[in-house]
Amino acid sequence: MHSIQANNYLVHFNVKGYEQLNLHLIENKYSNIFIIVDNNTNELCLPYFLPFLETDLTIEIIEFEAGEHNKNIETCVQIWNVLTELGADRKTLIINLGGGVVTDLGGFVASTFKRGIDFIHIPTTLLAMVDASVGGKNGVDLGNLKNQIGVINVPKMVLIDTQYLETVPQNEMRSGLAEMLKHGLIYDKLYWQQFLDLKSVDFADFDSLIYRSVEIKNEIVTQDPTEKNIRKSLNFGHTLGHAIESYFLENENKKTLLHGEAIAVGMILESYISWSNKLITQDDYKEIKSCLKSIYDTIIFDEKDIDPILDLLIHDKKNEYGSIQFALIEGIGKIKINQSVENELILKAFQDYKS
Prior knowledge:
InterPro entries: Dehydroquinate_synthase, DHQ_synth_AroB, DHQ_synth_fam, DHQS/DOIS_N, DHQS_C. Residues 62-174 form the 3-dehydroquinate synthase N-terminal domain. Pfam families: DHQ_synthase, DHQS_C. Its cofactor is Zn(2+); NAD(+); Co(2+). By secondary structure, this protein is α/β, with parallel strands linked by helices. It folds into two domains: 4-167, Rossmann fold (3-Layer(aba) Sandwich), CATH 3.40.50; 170-354, Dehydroquinate synthase-like, alpha domain, CATH 1.20.1090. The protein is 47% helix and 18% strand. The chain contains 14 helices and eleven strands. It has helices at residues 14-28, 39-44, 46-49, 73-85, 100-112, 126-132, 170-187, 189-193, 206-223, 238-250, 259-276, 282-295, 303-312, 343-354; strands at residues 4-6, 9-13, 32-38, 59-64, 92-98, 118-123, 137-142, 145-152, 157-160, 325-329, 335-340. It is globular and about 60 Å long.
């Protein structure tokens, strides 16, 4: 597969990626390398990765505990301290080897340490490959609020090796699949239609589906790197999805949802809103709802859950002047950004989701 040109960096795939990584090390004369991992990728992915690394530089491993609840400024402070204690400088390279939590947090750590040092993303989950590692967004959560603190700063390269997916549980694969489905809904109807019957999907050629998903995200981000316009389309399903994810994250009586599980709910709800606003047909909505519910378990919402979820919407990063802004689909494969939605319609969407 050909490398994909992004904004000031390349996304490489499989074996070619390691060749480009080693060439990059030679050309840039780094002082040392720090590899950031969580405890899962330290055990399952690092032993596979290290033999590909051809360098005499000192390599240090920084591990933190896996999980969204550790994607916070406290973890960053711990890593900044370790970097300082072990002699990281302006010519240090950070390699983030892991899923979306590792790439988001590791990119933020690198972007802020000594006002910014080079970093490379090597995503190891489907979600990180098709979404988190591409586009230059790096950051951490503020309490239960998703990605409230962060920067837009691109890596030196992204290296996608689908062999890492052999270490990923099925529920995590489904979580990543949600972002691929989103890419089809907002940008490419033919791509969306490939997933309508998962039994017919050729998973032997899953690399090509991942490649197309990365292409779609990159094409959008390249047009609008700092999310002033069309990049907002990538937030389809995320306005309500992030609020749901945050609510379930903070509520000890709820089972924490994976990112893609929450976004799948968000896409159903926001598709209902799109239909109610006559942006898609009823058949489109039924197709979307049926497809997503066939892949993801229905999440149970009690009446007392809805108001706190709505309260969390005010923290959505797309909001402007106190107004909640949605990205809604305008026909499958097209998007309409900066859409205001009344709470009454959101409540109807939740009611319909339950049916």
